[in-house]
Specification:
The protein has 214 residues and is mainly β. The chain is built from 5 helices and 13 strands.
Length: 214
């Protein structure tokens, strides 16, 4: 399975993006998810993009359409201790087995018939909210590659730390995946490793519960 992108909910109305910009990353334009109640800023790389997302309309994210997705609980991570992370997997045959019993979510901002496959991990909220794209995206076809000041190019590993009991059935789908790892810890955290960490450096963003290693 391959990662298309990862989102991180923030309760700062996007102000945390300034820290990533100061670090040396270059952001894309902001986008409103019509009818979902969320807004984002994204950072593109050669094989992946990082999405910072926040709530701009609480009524929409708790509407009859969106509430069943569990996104509203992830957005409230700062008071309910849910993981703020979303792991979005590419739509291909390798990911079919993971999403066999997934919840279908048809967002307002996509055409009819184009629905996400969602695994809320609601019984294990310290694990990332996980979903699959509703379409097959040709590699790099729709991704604007940005040259970052730090030279970061490709994501080589995403390591999710969790502090609960875990979910062996969920983990079993990733047992042969070298680029996606789950580690038992005393906190909910994400480490993104770029270019195999060849520069031997890292930066921590406490408000995002994120470490970038490169």
């Amino acid at each position: 399975m391959e990662i298309d992108h990862i989102f991180i909910f923030t309760d700062t109305n996007g102000r945390i993006v300034d820290e990533l910009l100061s670090f040396g990353l270059k952001a894309n334009d902001s986008r409103v998810h019509q009818g979902q109640g969320t807004t984002n800023r994204t950072f593109s790389f050669e094989n992946f993009f990082l999405e910072i997302v926040w709530v701009h309309n609480e009524q929409e994210i708790k509407s009859d359409l969106v509430r069943p997705t569990g996104l509203w609980q992830r957005a409230a991570f700062f008071k309910n201790n849910f993981s703020p992370f979303g792991l979005i997997i590419e739509n291909n045959e390798d990911s079919d087995h993971l999403f066999e019993n997934a919840y279908k979510y048809q967002p307002e901002y996509f055409p009819d018939g184009m629905a996400f496959d969602i695994l809320q991990n609601s019984l294990h909220p310290d694990l990332p909210w996980t979903c699959r794209l509703p379409f097959k995206r040709e590699k790099n076809a729709e991704r604007a590659i940005v040259s970052h000041n730090l030279g970061l190019k490709s994501l080589t590993k995403a390591t999710f730390q969790y502090c609960g009991l875990g979910n062996e059935d969920f983990f079993d789908h990733f047992k042969d995946e070298k680029s996606i790892q789950f580690i038992k810890s005393d906190k909910i955290w994400l480490t993104l490793t770029f270019d195999k960490g060849e520069q031997g450096l890292e930066r921590t963003f406490e408000k995002l519960q994120l470490t970038i290693a490169y």
